[in-house]
Amino acid sequence: MRTALMITPELASAGWDDAEALADLLIKSGADVHATCNHGCTPLAYAFRSLQILLPSCYPSYDQSANLCAKLTSFISAASVAATNRSLRAHRKLYRDPESRFNAVQARILSQEKSFVSHYDWSEGWYGGYEAFYEITEQYLGILTGDVMNTGVGFDKLVPMLHLHYMTKILTSIGLDREAVGVQLECRADVLKKMMFMIQDHVRTLLQKGW
Question: Is residue 193 classed exposed, middle or buried when 0-12, 13-18 and 19+ CB atoms within 10 A define those classes?
Answer without folding.
Answer: middle
